[in-house]
Amino acid sequence: MTLFGYRVPMMASLLVWCVVWEIVGRLDLVFLLPPFSDVLAAAVGLVQTPSWQSATVTTLRAFAIGMALSIVIGVPLGVLMGRVKIADDLLGMWVNIFSSAPLSAIVPVLMILFGFGEKTIVAAVFLFAIWIIVLDTRAGVRHISPSLIEMARSYGASRPALYTKIILWAALPEILAGIRLGLIRGVKGVVIGQLLVAIVGYGALFETFSRNFRMAEFWALTIILFAFALLIAELIERAEAKVEYYAGARQ
Amino acid sequence: MGATALRNGPSPVPAPIDSIVEVRGISKTYGNVEALRGIDLDFPRGKLTSLLGPSGCGKTTLLKIIAGLIRADGGTVAINGKRVSAPGPERAFVFQDFALMPWATVTRNVAFGLELRGTSKAEREEIARRYIAEVGLAGFEDKYPHELSGGMRQRVGLARALSVDADVLLLDEPFSAVDEQNRRKFQEDLIRLRTNQNKTFIFVTHSIEEAVYISDRIVLLSPRPGRVSQIIEPEIDRSGDPERIHRDRHYLDTVDEIWQGLKQYVE
């Protein structure tokens, strides 16, 4: 970003919006919006409470399990669809429907299936994250140069070797892109799941704060969540950049 | 069959003394396009045979059938007298687009055939280093393919094929994606390599000059359906300076003769 001919770092715009928030908050126009400094103070206080800490552990665990499941199931499913036409014909339609459907509507059904607990949250993360991982993996496998596969075959690669030494690696850039998008959707899944279940993790906290109009803490929690989602996306993006470096020479 | 019968009868095409690859009645159809029809060919051991023809004559298809990468609709391929229908360790393939793994170093790419065979890491890297030097890439062992030029990448592909110690090397237009200067150098290297390595080469090309320059035997294929139209054995002395071949009388005559034969297929 450039301003009056000067290069301004991206963080600067964030700073401007924080100042605007602070001013609007101080003017006391809307009670929903406390000054930004209050929110920061609330964040510092919040992270020290045992309720936040245990909520964070619950949330992270549900998120991690849900993501692990969607990667472990999603990548092989995507590879299968990319390699086997029948599998693609059978599953393609469903994967496309689920990847674009408003999944929040299904979360209440999950509650009936899995009860008011962590299982529902894990299921929500899984349901939000897996489809894009499947689709991107499938696209990656589809784009592998046929001669690379012929090469492996001509040098005597067994079927497992073909998959672990060639196909997974050749599709890795797309797989990682799918996982990155999946992680972002997974954050959505964990939040929506917890909000609807409302008695576990961050969902319970959000519920408490908004019921009691504790807006500073409400915003503090929101900001912490946003920061977490951004951090994860950033980390995966770095890994992707490294992989892109090798993929740059793809024929 | 007695020697007298041979002498008295109409002289047949003399069968090669020792053929390592025997192709019998190979045919292949894609949809309703007949790519190959009734191909019978023998590839003599230790020689370089080129499959030459205009595009669409099925020369790459034939090479891939010999490699076991494509299944023929009819006919058989035998290597060392044994029928084959799948890839095997006695054959190694060099690809037109190099087919290198972009995520692996030159050493790992060259050693990949051995890696698939379960050779130990130390041993296969030792072998790989030797062949990397053999194709003139010493010093590039730890580079990645995208750091190399097209010509160098194909040298990696060639080193990979050499390192598995196959009897037959199958090369599918290996120089078509390489620039002209590198191609010349590469062809000279191939002539040298052939004398050093004592392997059988089957070489697909659409360049008449290239075929005559490097081949002991040239199989001319005619298009739609692909059939053997002529077999030529250019008698060119390749022992001296490779540069000299390009001005050799016999070289020029053979190129011209083949061109006269192929002209009819060019629209």
Question: What's the SSE blueprint?
Answer:
The complex is a heterodimer of chains A (about 250) and B (about 270).
Chain A (H helix, E strand, L loop, with lengths): L1 E2 L2 E2 L2 H18 L8 H11 L3 H34 L1 H16 L6 H8 L3 H25 L3 H9 L4 H12 L1 H26 L3 H11 L3 H33 L4
Antiparallel strand pairs in A: 1-2
Chain B lengths: L2 H6 L10 E12 L2 E12 L3 E5 L6 H9 L6 E6 L2 E3 L6 E4 L11 H5 L1 H5 L4 H14 L15 H14 L4 E5 L7 H18 L2 E6 L2 H7 L2 E6 L4 E6 L9 H4 L3 H14 L5
Parallel strand pairs in B: 3-8, 3-9, 6-7, 7-8
Antiparallel strand pairs in B: 1-2, 1-4, 4-5, 9-10
Helix pairs in contact in B: 5-6, 8-10
Task: Quickly describe the structure.
Chain A has 251 residues and is mostly helical. Helix content of chain A is 81%, strand content 2%.
Proportion of helical residues of chain A: over 70%
The radius of gyration over CA of chain A amounts to 22 Å
CATH architecture of the largest domain in chain B: 3-Layer(aba) Sandwich
Q: What order do the SSEs of chain A take from the amino end to the carboxyl end, as H and E?
A: EEHHHHHHHHHHH
The computed structural class of chain B is alpha/beta
Got a strand count of chain B?
Answer: 10
Distance from first to last alpha carbon of chain A: 35 Å
User: Which superfamily, in CATH terms, is the homologous superfamily of the largest domain in chain A?
Assistant: MetI-like
Characterize the largest beta sheet of chain B: strand count, sense, and whether it forms a barrel. 6 strands, mixed
